[in-house]
Amino acid sequence: MNNPDNNAASGPVATSTAPRTFRYYDLVMAAFVAILLLSNIIGAAKLTFLEVPFWPNGMWPAPDGIFIYGAGILFFPLGYVIGDILTEIYGFAKARRVIWTGFAAMIFLAFMSYVVVGLPAFAGWECAASSSLQFTGNSDPIPGEICQQTYESVFGSTWRIVMASIIAFWAGEFVNSYVMAKMKVWTKGKALWTRTIGSTVVGQGVDSLIFYPIAFYGIWSTEAVITVMITNWLLKVLWEALLTPVTYAVVGKLKKAEGVDLFDTETNFSPFASEKQQV
Q: Is the model's pLDDT at 84 over the cut of 90?
């Protein structure tokens, strides 16, 4: 394929070799890492629910019509959307670099959470949890202890959940990017929706198959692990499908802006290869 200069004026040019520079690659990388970290910090700590009145009574996986899920599911799939955009626009090699960047960021997040949660709490530390209580005597709990317990409940994930999150992210994202890149070559760049949804089905499937057993097997019942694993996977895939019009719009604008349409026909798909290594 061609090896064009990065000239957006002539429109996207099909190529198997990326130009030396991109206009918006760094911004897309920053968005990916930001969504990844915020989904794990803010979303993972809260369970919420969705009540579906028309759901058949007694039907799996919500016999009472109430679907329970982690709040992070609303935003975490956006990382897969951006991952699809990265592979579609910038190719597997560039996406690989972003995945490793996100992987390193998650490890640092886990380390920082461990250190900060483990630091002793100042007795006079006041927060929303302590300021809402009235203290009457020496037997009352110390405000700092209440704040520490609240802080731990949000940021003090167990080692199993941290390990599960990091491994599942790494494997799921690489599988997602690999399927996306291969399907683009197979479909000759047509039918973008087939590869965005198809790659998410496989990538999120790998993510869920790794995360839930490592994080919760032996803590939850086997039935609960399987139920939550399947329902969360289905919700993530559905969310990705609903975002397809947004993906189309962003991909179209970025391809025009970058001036290339990359096909991974000469790419080394090893997660550990450098961008310059070719098959």
A: yes
